[in-house]
Amino acid sequence: MQSFFQKNAGFISLFVGIALIVVSVIMVINADVYGETAAIVTERWDNFGDDTPAYGYRLRYEVDGKTYETTTNTSEWMETGTRYGLYYDKNNPAITMDVDSVNNVFIPVGVGILFIIIGVLFILKRFRPELLPGWIKFEQ
């Protein structure tokens, strides 16, 4: 007897893929709320743990003539005085996001597409196996 997951793996995969893409689209739509600026590293400290090098940084940046500070953690080692890219909330410049966080929106889109393809294949296998290409084999 098949479990709920085995019976519905295609639909679950399809749902996860669509959800990843929707979240990514929402992130892109909200991206216009953020402005981009270059912060300066003013302080650095080590945050080593679990054999993974990590560094904490205090960053200073300016928006519309007003100076702000924030902190971030990254595995990238930077000297004091290094420029670091940040996005800031245009409505509240004290709220920031690393440039890499915004640029990584394409990873969930790719993973979402992969989940959708896998979901469609599982759904075809369950309901219309004759539509599957001959080179796709599912174990019984």
Question: How are the secondary structure elements laid out?
Answer:
Blueprint: H1 4-30, E1 34-46, E2 55-63, E3 66-74, E4 83-89, E5 92-98, H2 99-103, H3 106-127
Antiparallel strand pairs: 1-2, 1-4, 2-3, 4-5
Structure description:
With 140 residues, the chain is α+β, with helices and mostly antiparallel strands. It is 39% helix and 32% strand. The protein contains 3 helices and 5 strands, in the order H-E-E-E-E-E-H-H. The chain has helices at 4-30, 99-103, 106-127, and strands at 34-46, 55-63, 66-74, 83-89, 92-98. Strands 3-2-1-4-5 form a 5-stranded antiparallel β-sheet. Helix 1 (4-30) runs antiparallel to helix 3. It is elongated, with a radius of gyration of 22 Å. The model has no long low-confidence stretch (mean pLDDT 84).
State the distance separating the first and last CA atoms: 13 Å
Rough outline? elongated
**Overall average pLDDT:** 84
Query: Main beta sheet: strand number and arrangement?
Result: 5 strands, antiparallel
The order of strands across the largest sheet is 3-2-1-4-5
Give short descriptive properties of this protein.
single chain; 140 residues; alpha+beta; 5-stranded antiparallel sheet; 39% helix
